[in-house]
Specification:
GO molecular function (chain A): endonuclease activity
CATH architecture of chain A: 2-Layer Sandwich
Shape of chain B: globular
Structural class of chain B: alpha/beta
Order of helices and strands of chain B: EEEEEEHEEHHHHHHHHEEH
Keywords (chain A): Antiviral defense, Endonuclease, Hydrolase, Magnesium, Metal-binding, Nuclease
Strand content of chain A: 15-25%
Largest sheet of chain B: 4 strands, mixed
Number of helices of chain A: 2
Helix content of chain A: 25-40%
Protein name (chain A): CRISPR-associated endoribonuclease Cas2
CATH class of chain A: Alpha Beta
Subunit structure (chain A): Homodimer, forms a heterotetramer with a Cas1 homodimer.
Helix content of chain B: 40-55%
Family (chain A): Belongs to the CRISPR-associated endoribonuclease Cas2 protein family.
Number of domains of chain A: 1
Strand order of the largest sheet of chain A: 2-3-1-4
Order of helices and strands of chain A: EHEEHE
Radius of gyration of chain A: 14 Å
Shape of chain A: globular
Largest interface: A-B, 15 and 22 residues
Distance between the termini of chain A: 23 Å
Largest sheet of chain A: 4 strands, antiparallel
Oligomer: heterodimer
Strand content of chain B: 5-15%
């Protein structure tokens, strides 16, 4: 499946600011970094479960939240760019 | 899980428990959980830290030199090992009867691929198909590996001789030449074959089979010879069809080849085109008749290896893959 993951971390406190890079690094293990707090990519169900668990361990449930948009069928997504033509999921570098 | 093809030059390193590709001007993070295989075409630095990390994650790395020739693969320590399979593999190699049985299937399937390919092009004379059919019948009668290889060679010679009728571009092509290829078509055939070869290595890694014990090719035959065997089946139907499409749709023309070196190798932009359509092709899915579900082209290679395992374990006689679409 294809997912888009967006997070919002409460950075007013010192702990929040230290969570921010942690969650970014964790997401980078699984997904492609599209924008500052946006990740996307193809992922298997098992790996998504692992990712969710890792994310849960990092965030503070009272202050942060993470949204995962799940697209079951990859054919149902069409990516369109405005501006720079940039596809972070490209596998030919 | 995807294959990543890297043409840029720079350094690949382990960072934050994932992979990052550093080039002169950018840093591109690559999610380690998304990497299936890495194909390195550029000039890339690696250190042991990252290689150990690849091994831990079961990532195969294929290296290509400046001219696009496959130089080798990093094949991590096998995590799927089975003593029994190795014993059976060796048993089927040592017994010439058993060995021929498997080797014939490879040749038969390869020739079947030639026939299916030339049948797609109506301008080819039917007599050629009849000759090909003759070759496949002859292959089944051979009782030595050398003569079987001979039949395969003859069939391949005839098959390549038909290429100028299939390819609509003006291409000088009389016969297959390797080391180095002497023209455009030979160059692209060599390149695509090496991609198929690595695709088979990757699938062998995911099974218990030992890649060095083979049946058609001699096991001492450089490289992972089992991959050479299995690649024979897939070269005509995956590789050659890709080549015909790329050349006939004029996606590849002589400007993608290096003229100064007698067109003997693809330039980087040409290689990118081939790799891109190869990757698309391997992820293509078709309905599998027996499994009644969709399988990708690369999965078909794996299924083929499973069939070999079943044959070795004497569960089901091996019938090599024949294209049905």
């Amino acid at each position: 499946m294809y997912i888009i993951l967006v997070y919002d971390i409460y950075t007013e406190t010192k702990q929040g600011r230290s969570r921010l890079p942690k969650i970014m690094k964790k997401c980078r293990e699984y997904l492609h970094h599209t924008q500052k707090s946006v990740f996307e990519g193809e992922i298997s169900e098992a790996k998504l479960l692992a990712l969710k668990k890792d994310v849960e361990n990092i965030i503070n449930k009272k202050e942060d939240y993470v949204v995962i948009y799940i697209i079951e069928n990859i054919n149902n997504i069409y990516r369109e760019n405005i501006g720079i033509d940039f596809d972070p999921t490209d596998n030919i570098l | 899980m995807k294959d990543y093809y890297i043409f840029k030059s720079g350094r690949i390193s382990r960072k934050d428990n994932s992979i990052v590709m550093e080039t002169e001007d950018t840093k591109i993070p690559i999610p380690v959980n998304d990497i299936d295989n890495l194909y390195l075409f550029g000039e890339i630095d690696l250190n042991t830290r990252v290689i150990n990390f690849f091994a831990k994650n079961g990532i195969l790395v294929h290296f290509f030199n400046y001219y696009g020739w496959w130089t080798g693969s990093f094949y991590p320590r096998e995590n799927l090992v089975s003593g029994e399979i190795i014993v059976r593999q060796v048993e089927h190699y040592l017994d010439i009867k058993k060995r021929l049985e498997i080797a014939k299937e490879f040749v038969y399937s390869a020739i079947d691929g030639f026939i299916k390919n030339i049948k797609k092009y109506p301008n080819i004379d039917d007599s050629n198909i009849a000759t090909m059919n003759n070759f496949s019948a002859l292959a089944l009668e051979q009782d030595t590996i050398a003569s079987l290889m001979g039949i395969e060679g003859n069939a391949r010679e005839l098959y390549y001789a038909l290429f100028p009728q299939i390819i609509k571009q003006e291409i000088e092509f009389t016969k297959r030449v390797k080391h180095p290829p002497d023209n455009m078509l030979n160059a692209i055939i060599s390149f695509v074959n090496s991609l198929i070869y690595t695709a088979v290595i990757k699938e062998i890694y995911r099974t218990q089979l030992n890649p060095t014990i083979s049946y058609l090719h001699e096991p001492s035959y450089r490289r992972f010879s089992l991959a050479l065997d299995v690649a024979e089946i897939f070269k005509p139907i995956y590789g050659d069809r890709l080549i015909f499409d790329l050349l006939n749709n004029r996606e590849l023309t002589d400007k993608h080849f290096d003229k100064e070196l007698n067109y003997c190798y693809l330039k980087e932009n040409g290689r990118k085109i081939v790799v891109k359509s190869f990757d698309e092709k391997m992820n293509n899915t078709i309905m599998h008749k027996k499994l009644k579900r969709k399988v990708s082209y690369s999965r078909i290679i794996r299924l083929e290896l499973y069939k070999i395992i079943k044959h070795l374990l004497k569960e089901e006689p091996y019938r090599a893959f024949k294209i049905w679409w």
